[in-house]
C-alpha cells in the first residue's frame, strides 16, 4: 500500500476529487482510510434508497471511508448539522467541500478495482483483480 494524504479545497466535489487523485497517480484501486472536514451541500443516498438526499446546509464531515475503483467509488460518510444531529449513508456526487476536507487514501499499486453489475444484489458491486504473483 502507498499512503496518500490529501487536503481538498473549498468548492471541490469530494467524490470526484478522490477519484481524480487516484486516477491521476496512475492507480485503479484505493481505499479511503479516513476523512474529516466540512461540506455544503452534502448529497447522501440512504440505505436501500434510489434517490439522493441533498442537505443544503453547513455540515461537518465526521467520517469517510470506502473504496475507489477505476469506474466508480463506494464511499460511506457521516455528517453532523449545527444541532449535532448525525446523518449517514453513501456519498454521492455533489458533496462540495465548504472549508476543507482532509483525507487519507491507501493506494494499491498493481491492483485493479472495478464496479460491475451483480444480479444477486441489483447494484454495481466491487470486482477485485489482484496483481499477478
From TrEMBL:
<feature type="domain" description="PPC">
    <location>
        <begin position="1"/>
        <end position="129"/>
    </location>
</feature>
<dbReference type="Pfam" id="PF03479">
    <property type="entry name" value="PCC"/>
</dbReference>
<dbReference type="InterPro" id="IPR005175">
    <property type="entry name" value="PPC_dom"/>
</dbReference>
<dbReference type="GO" id="GO:0003677">
    <property type="term" value="F:DNA binding"/>
</dbReference>
<keyword id="KW-0238">DNA-binding</keyword>
<protein>
    <submittedName>
        <fullName>DNA-binding protein</fullName>
    </submittedName>
</protein>
